[in-house]
Amino acid sequence: MLHPVAADPQAKTVIIYADADFAGKSRELGPGRYSAQQLGIGDNQLTSIRVAPGMRAILYDAPNFSADKVEITEDTRFVMPPGFNDRTSSIVVEEVRVVQSEVSPAPVVTPVTPVAPGPQVIPTPAPVRGNTVTIYSDFFHRGASIELRPGRYSSGQLGIGNNNLSSLKVPFGMKAVLFDNENFSGPALEVIEDTVGVPMRFNDLTSSLIVERVSPETARQRELNLALYEAATDRYSPQQFQKLLDQGVDVNHGAGWTCVYSRAMYQPEKASAMLKRNVIVGCKPGENGWDLLIWMAHDNAPVSAIEKILQHGGNAKWVGRLGDQRITALLFAAANGNFPSVKALVRAGADVNHVNPPWANSSVPTQTPVLAARANGWTEIVNFLEGRDNADYERSIYWAARSGNLEQIKKLVAAGVDLDKPENELNNAPILLAANNKQWAVVTYLLDQGAEADPVSVFSGVTPLRQAVLHGPTELVGRLLEQGANPIRAQEVGCGQGESIMEWAARRGYADKLALLIQGARKMNLSLDFFKERLYSRAMDGSKNNVYETVKALIDNGLKPDDSIISANEGVTGEGQRRALALMKQHRVAGASSASRAIEPKRRLDDFDSQGRMRDAAMFPQ
Predict the structure, then answer these.
(1) Per-residue pLDDT tens over the stretch 586-615
(2) Distance, CA of 381 to CA of 509 (rounded, Å)
(3) Which of 135, 406, 520, 570 is the most buried (most CB within 10 A)?
């Protein structure tokens, strides 16, 4: 069930959720330090978080408040960078220092000073200015880096390698334009501020780049919009908000304009002021994502806000495409139980038969408005929509696979349904939908009926085997391998991009499943020399408790450590690591492993030959 209501603004807490969009298992945390066992939703499970005003949460990748971290000070539907999803093992919750502003009696959270009356309202402190952009090969401004002055840079001039950029620092007054292809062509992304992780569609995909100064007009507009975003909160009066609009703020400027309206929507004077300034209620030309109407329905806005947007040209039929989502405002209104908004959207022509295929583990309302309402117990909405819903999606094998309706699947199989036909262009075959939703009995039955064991999601890059390794029973891993699932396939997109299924098992410490994957690779006559160094690196990760068992699984299955692997792990401090290192020394083999090299995300590990060697590079056009 969705949780559209924000955290209590008076509370000194944060609420963590296992799923995106504030859904799934949750736990409210007050100020303090929380280890993995104290999180309440499980280790490596956090996906979204609500943060009360004046609070912040610092998420750590390791259980002892160490390793990579990300700081969050506001409600976040999906933690960024994308690689941090399902990686939180410890959290610090604390209050942000509050100071008394010199220009307003109201206290505000640093570093933003409230909007004060006057002809010039600019956020303070002044933005850091500079003349160079710094690009990094890893998230969180880590890894190889280089400073770039204004100019045009091809892949050979980037300094961190082609297809290797993951984060960057952009001082105020500068911008970087990233291009997916050489010669400044292909999809482009403009970045005008520090970014700890570029969107997944651009992560490790930059082949050329332009650095340039923004115009004074653009810089000024950015300052004003930052101020407008802050002034949209209820800490500021409508008069202060109006003063910014009167200074010429472009209410449609930048990616965050919907967030400005979202903050203002419960304050009628501010919302009306924005609409009077011709705020774009639909998506901008050339875009196909969520429009303002969808965002408002997602945030469970009152029907008055929905009706105002409809009156100003909002399109109730608009389908917002984000990844593999196909979302409408009606889906969110039905899922949130907002009956007045449901009726308003239906009157405006919303499609009650629209089908949304959500991605793996998504908390986005599933399938049709009727199903979204029924899943959350909104009987009044179900009764209202059922007479209008002519879709038969509930009777399809795709819905049955997602929901675990094994009896319906058996009926469909008896009727001759195609078990391998994907639901859509994203290659979501029934067995993959079942695995994504942890319907293991359905996965087993489909295997029994001869379904293909190894379909790959075009959007998330996952396979049934990967989902079984991370979430399913050990015996199912063996079954999938027996029926041809590839144990060394790399995930090409999404979180974990570039890592093989085997590496995921080693990283998580799933020793029994790792052993099955190694045995499966050997049965397929695949050489594992390429992976050995990487597998030991993942297995020796000190943030988990079963390092020794994971290393033992590698050794017992023929991947003996050599001098270079042992040397790389000298000096480990954890008890499990030290025991594992001692075991490694007992089974040392002479020589050094072949040099470990980064796996290029645009290539797949299953494109190795039977000896584990990458096939002809000409097969992989960049």
Answers:
(1) 999 876 544 443 333 333 334 444 333 333
(2) 45
(3) 135
